[in-house]
């Protein structure tokens, strides 16, 4: 079993890199967007912890970082653990970091117990998992898995125009290890659930059956600026109103049940010129759709596109869609799920099986080797992407105990 | 008759102070927000033109600028002309400036013709007419008319926290003339219509019967940030969705006819934290309502407040309203309207009478003396608050000819 106090101390220490006082909640949150100065400081701290645990560290060309513990039989594919350490702008201490710091804690525990494994064990943390800075989530792991090219990823820009490549160079994490890594034996990621399923079931542990489909698009509606007081209602081309109707329709689609378990969110919306007495000439919004069913996801995207066409005509605005990210439903490896289940059973920890609502690096790595995930329950209904995100020391400890024992077993295969 | 070429040259010269290339329209626009460096440069240029025309210039404590031409009988209340030279961030060359530069052109014409008048004639330009920087429109004229106190106006802040007082001092227009000025004999403002009524009627000239009621409020909706992928639809507190429903309801209110000729606009909306995969925790929007009927305006505000209460409950968000500006319907002086009508008749210029959709300094000055306005038609349906705003040299010339002759007559009374 791992050292829970040590794990907790590390989680709390890392939390302060990018830590800020959140006005909305009155809580201490974390703002550590990928490849920012905060991310760089966090990366250096985590690398130092990896080295202290005896790991050999390498950085690849998309900035993914791996720490390796040698196995007894050199040349065998490794057992890989991992996750990410970047956060959203209003994040908590657990999203991603639990899997990375938990992985280091697993290594320390093996070291202290003098346990050697047949296979090497590696920990990876992947670049821009959140996708909020450069617009594409699971970016580093998607490049490693070959779903996105290195060139595509390098050229993505943030809101200020900085590219991924420039930022990698700037923070000193433009590594030279090939982004297409040696194929692992298997991959397990421990992550907080970020949702209510485990809490509702009253268990600390979830075995993740897969990840639902994710669709991210940016929609720009262009109308015409005009005076708010003098312009007749019927002659307006109000881009803000059109955007509002899009938001309302997305919610209607979710409520209707026509698209199954569809979840839709408009997280960002900007109006130009953005003045009290000027009708908006331009509205740019992000559209985040999730669906556990690929067919229903495609149908939802199609309906929304048609609906936007119709309302654009009605409001005399033009609509331009930009694809940010799109993944299909990804099922996890049943054999690895079963190993995790048997481990939890052996530890006497009850669990449920559940599909993930959030995207995870594991869904990318699943394309190159057997992969699965351990979920850890969160409090407050599992709320995440807010400083209210919280998983207890015992829930975190239980999750990493499961991780440790599953890794130990698979590294011995 | 005034010198149309000279007036046009001045309009085009002033346009370049704050001139910018507008991406949305591909046109040259004007961005000269009140009390910015651009406004300061424009003020200095206009003051120099006033002085060249022989006017004695004074600046009052809210930054309103007056230029005075002596009358034959000292001590008589003056005939006042005026308007404003600040613009919105996506403005054109005519909104406000026509009345100010036209007024200077009237003075030059009188000077050249060697005409003296019984009463003094003054031109005024008023601070922050647009209201887009500090949130309250007709600010300078409202202080002069006693509707708002100097202290209230001085303490208003822009989005960056700068106060009106600080900015007045910074740009050197914190004058010492009393803000409550000597009562004029009468006030006439020439302004572009900024709407389609004159163009539809096929005339260059409008005689303004009054200004409709204006209501500006800022609404802040607060919900809870949470993960877009994992948070069930039914447990969300999505401030962005609530804001979208407010926008859609405002449009429904306008379309329904329940509130007469209500016009409603949400020109600005900001979401926090503004990230693709985070449900918005906060939405702040401006609500601009206009109504030619005071009773229906009050009913519209009441309905909207109740509707927002209901939808806030439904979405588990809180709603906080902040009053930015509010004016009742202001009728203009019928005697002055008739003088303008007789002047237009004498010049052979057809006109229509119409209520103003936009707010104007004249509606404030109307509280202290008889006041009315001359409207000048615009092209492209009279569109304004966009670089597409355009009134032809002949329409502008006709409007200022009417102004000149009406002023001449009233200054002789
Ligand atoms: N786990 C997590 O928050 N991933 C970010 C990608 C997503 O929005 O699902
Ligand atoms: N004329 C004009 O644009 N005034 C600004 C105040 C308003 O929004 O009506």
TrEMBL record, chains A, B:
The keyword Repeat does not apply. Zn(2+) 1 binds at residues 84, 95, 191. Pfam families: M20_dimer (PF07687), Peptidase_M20 (PF01546). Binds 2 Zn(2+) ions per subunit. InterPro entries: Amidase_Cbmase (IPR010158), Bact_exopeptidase_dim_dom (IPR036264), Peptidase_M20 (IPR002933), Peptidase_M20_dimer (IPR011650). Keywords: Hydrolase, Metal-binding, Zinc. SUPFAM superfamilies: Bacterial exopeptidase dimerisation domain, Zn-dependent exopeptidases. GO terms for molecular function: hydrolase activity, acting on carbon-nitrogen (but not peptide) bonds, in linear amidines; metal ion binding. Its cofactor is Zn(2+). Zn(2+) 2 binds at residues 95, 130, 385. Residues 210-312 form the Peptidase M20 dimerisation domain. Belongs to the peptidase M20 family. NCBIfam families: hydantase, PRK09290.1-5. This is N-carbamoyl-L-amino-acid hydrolase. It comes from Nonomuraea jiangxiensis. The lineage of its organism: Bacteria, Bacillati, Actinomycetota, Actinomycetes, Streptosporangiales.
């Amino acid at each position: 079993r791992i050292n829970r106090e040590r794990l907790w101390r590390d989680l709390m220490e890392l939390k302060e890199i990018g830590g800020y006082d959140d006005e909305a909640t009155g809580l201490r949150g974390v703002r550590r967007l990928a490849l920012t100065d905060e991310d760089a400081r966090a990366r250096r701290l985590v690398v130092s912890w990896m080295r202290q645990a005896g790991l050999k560290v390498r950085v690849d060309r998309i900035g993914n970082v791996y720490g390796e513990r040698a196995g007894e039989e050199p040349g065998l594919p490794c057992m890989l653990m991992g996750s990410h350490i970047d956060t959203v702008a209003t994040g908590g201490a657990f999203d991603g970091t639990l899997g990375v710091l938990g992985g280091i804690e697993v290594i320390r525990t093996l070291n202290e117990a003098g346990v050697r494994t047949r296979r090497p064990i590696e920990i990876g943390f992947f670049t821009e998992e959140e996708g909020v800075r450069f617009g594409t989530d699971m970016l580093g792991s998607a490049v490693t898995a070959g779903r996105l090219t290195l060139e595509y990823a390098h050229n993505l820009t943030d809101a200020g125009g900085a590219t991924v490549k420039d930022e990698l160079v700037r923070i000193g994490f433009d590594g030279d290890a090939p982004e297409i890594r040696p194929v692992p034996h298997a991959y397990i990621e421990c992550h907080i659930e970020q949702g209510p399923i485990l809490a509702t079931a009253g268990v600390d542990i979830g075995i993740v059956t897969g990840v639902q489909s994710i669709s991210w698009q940016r929609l720009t509606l262009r109308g015409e600026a005009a005076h708010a007081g003098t312009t007749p209602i019927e002659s307006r081309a109000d881009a803000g109103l059109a955007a509002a109707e899009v938001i309302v329709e997305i919610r209607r689609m979710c409520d209707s049940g026509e698209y199954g378990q569809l979840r839709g969110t408009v997280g960002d919306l900007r109006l130009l010129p953005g003045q009290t007495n000027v009708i908006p000439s331009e509205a740019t919004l992000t559209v985040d759709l999730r669906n556990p069913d690929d067919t229903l996801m495609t149908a939802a995207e199609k309906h929304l596109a048609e609906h936007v066409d119709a309302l654009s005509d009605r409001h005399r605005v033009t609509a331009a869609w930009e694809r940010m990210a799109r993944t299909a439903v990804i099922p996890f490896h049943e054999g690895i799920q079963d190993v995790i289940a048997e481990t939890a059973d052996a530890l006497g920890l009850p669990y449920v099986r559940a599909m993930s609502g959030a995207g995870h690096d594991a869904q990318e790595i699943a394309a190159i080797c057997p992969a699965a995930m351990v979920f850890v329950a969160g409090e407050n209904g599992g709320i995440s992407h807010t400083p209210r995100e919280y998983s207890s020391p015992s829930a975190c400890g239980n999750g990493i105990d499961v991780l440790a024992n599953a890794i130990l077993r698979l590294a011995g295969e």
